[in-house]
Amino acid sequence: MEVLNSNVQKHIGAFVAEDFRTAAVFNQYGIDFCCRGGRSLEEVCEKNQIDANELLSKLEAVINTKTDQSIDYKSWPLDLLVDYIEKKHHRYVEEKIPVLRQFLDKLCRVHGERHPELITINELFTASAGELSAHLKKEELILFPFVKKMVGATLSQGAIEAPQFGTVENPIAMMMDEHDHEGVRFRKIAELSNNYNPPADACNTYRVTYAMLQEFEQDLHLHIHLENNILFPQAIKLEKQFH
Asked: For the chain, which ranges sit under pLDDT 70?
């Protein structure tokens, strides 16, 4: 157990950054690895009364299972990671928001009286949709172009002009704060929807909407993880090379 024990001080986000498959283990235990990935495994286990050795054994089992499907995002150049997040995760959010809003409105009209939690879920998702859309634009117009500029300057060994926002740490702090808000909002949605389990009298639209909401949350978790635990720390590190 000695090797495992040295991992109790490791941050949750670091486990997931090294092997995304560990996210499923943290999910099983209800541990938030994306917005709150900066906590040590020991701290999380103590707080949630989880047996640290048991959790570490499960994590080790996953890490030691070799598969072609585990993508090593950490080894990607930062400009590739930025493009990937934008084309995969930003587009996903933009495509799913109108569909989910339409479905949730319909559910509230038909089932809202019998299931008042739907009204709150709809309100939470609508707020999330508005804020996420603004959040993505800020990343695409301000933060991501600067990260790409830094990568370009590193390759050409050129200099970069100081950005209007001072240091990359400023927009990153704002993005992380916004990520936290979405994390909290989706925890409430998961709670209200009984972890996306539709009630016995649910129609097909009801089931599809809950499944879509769950998929949306899972995509958001990976999206936030890639930024909080990989892109942001590496961008801060890269910027320091220019000083």
From this structure: 1-5, 66-70
| Mean pLDDT computed over every residue of the chain | 89
Q: How far is 203 from 115, CA to CA, in rounded Å? A: 13
CA distance 100 to 96: 6
What are the DSSP calls for 16-78, one per residue?
HHH-TTHHHHHHHTT---STTTTSBHHHHHHHHT--HHHHHHHHHHHHTS--TT---GGGS-H
Tens-place pLDDT, residues 90-110: 999 999 999 999 999 999 999
pTM attached to this predicted model: 0.79
Rounded CA-CA distance 54/64 in Å is: 15
Helix (H, G, I), strand (E, B) or coil at 110: helix
How far is it, in rounded angstroms, from Cα 241 to Cα 166?
A: 15
> Positive or negative CA dihedral for 63, 85, 175, 211?
negative
DSSP 205-224: HHHHHHHHHHHHHHHHHHHH
- In terms of Cβ atoms closer than 10 Å to its own Cβ (0-12, 13-18, 19+), residue 215 is middle
Tokens at 51, concatenated: 């047996």
pLDDT of 98: 94
Q: Which of 69, 85, 77 is nearest to 34 (CA)?
A: 85
Rounded CA-CA distance 39/62 in Å is 20
pLDDT, residue 105, reads 96
